[in-house]
Amino acid sequence: MARNFVDPNAVRFTVNDKIYVDAELYTGEKFTMLEPHRLFPVSGLMKYISLLDEEGNEKMIIRDLDQLMPESKEVILNCLNERYMIPKITRLIKRTEKFKIWMWTVDTDRGEYTFEIINSYQSIKILYDGRILIKDGNDNRYEIPDLYALDKRSIKLILPDV
Q1: Does position 127 have pLDDT exceeding 90, yes or no?
Q2: Which residues, other chains included, contact 109 with Cβ-Cβ below 8 Å and sequence gap of 6+?
Q3: Which pTM does this prediction carry?
Q4: Could you say which architecture CATH assigns to the domain 89-158?
Q5: Taking the domains of the chain in order of start, what are their residue ranges?
Q6: DSSP characters for 1-67?
Q7: Which of 22, 34, 70, 86 is deepest in the core (most CB within 10 A)?
């Protein structure tokens, strides 16, 4: 199957719904109700965005969001943020451990959460760009965008040996 990479200078994206966009190519061709998906949701936040129609067929791929016009980029980013809503941890309030199960209470950009981490080796991933992804015992996901942007107490609770 051949992939259709869109020319970032030849397309305009507009909002259709919270997670859908419309695309108008400068050739006059129009697509409605396209749903943006990240082909690489962990490592490629701004690159290789697939746009699927209502039947789930891929209509086009955006190689790099930064190459789009600012208005179109904002439309796509808003849809992706709605689709891949992951609370961002801003502070670790409390961490306890019982039978090798960690209980964390955190502040996030979406409010306070308390969750269990059953296997810290599998549930906490430190990525190459400095982000930390956390999966709780119920498969909910959380993100620490930058560990060292947190307060010192939170860093100490997350990395007790530092």
Answers
A1: no
A2: 87, 88, 90
A3: 0.67
A4: Beta Barrel (2.40)
A5: 8-83, 89-158
A6: ----BPPGGGEEEEESSSS-EEEEETTS-EEEEEEEEESSTTT-SSEEEEEE-TTS-EEEEEEEGGG
A7: 34
